[in-house]
Write the structure tokens for this entry.
Amino acid sequence: MTNESAHFRLEEVAPGAWAAVAGVTGACVSNAGIIDLGDRTLIFDTFMTPQAAEDLARAAESLTGRGAGLVVNSHHHSDHVRGNQVFAGVEILSTARTRELIEASSPDDHEAYTERLESRIGTVHDQLPNAESDTTERRDLEMSMETARAVLSSLPRLSSTLPSRSYDDALVVEGSERAAHILTYGGGHTDSDTFVFLPDASVVFAGDLLWVANHPWGGDGHPDEWINIIYRIEALGPDLVVPGHGNVASFEYARVFTRYLTHMCDVVRQAEATGTSTTKLAASPVPPQYADWGEANRYAQTLEALGRRVGLPPD
């Protein structure tokens, strides 16, 4: 049994708790977690592809001496739940709204989905020669291509596996060695977001409620509520955060991220007040302090989506 993977690296964030931080193969682009409760192993999120989720399952068994006993889906986005099928025999937990969204967003036409992925690969292939080497833009394009290829290769065996159990707002799972607090404060990044807090270790597995040095996708979210949710998580007193994307960080980094979200809200409000078009809004420059963050294209995409939501004209 091995806990090594080409798709992610493991980082122990507390005794018996590990972050599985996405690597560069494209088979996973978001992070996951492994938590040893003493008599039960909890998996937090399951990656984008079965091949990465299989490595996650093997790593959990190697680290804790037992297979997964509970899986928690933080939200519905595919990069966090497409590995669910690997844990099909395990109880998978989410909010009821997250389950609805997973079901609604699962591709039911694999042929059309294949065509979209192949088109994406072709588009990126054409863009790469124009991107300067060793730049954030080029690295983002290369990762986008690797991700599309990894998902494409998984399609022949990919199946949608929905959460088997839902909860309302809080659930404490008591293990023989520690308790895991499974919580939702509503919708910030999406309509419904779950995180896991380990009080004994002061560690929070935040899912996409917090991103480190990466531009977040906010087009499905509610930025004002998102900021409030982060403040509520801060009140729990975590020292360390496992983000949905990016490296493990001190929870103090949440201040950087809330400033980013506040900036996005301010830009959209100003555009709404002046009747700025979504096209012009999306052309807003990335502030210098965030210029080296990964996936800079998400800045424009999120602004455009939020502009449409408040009814800005397209042009």
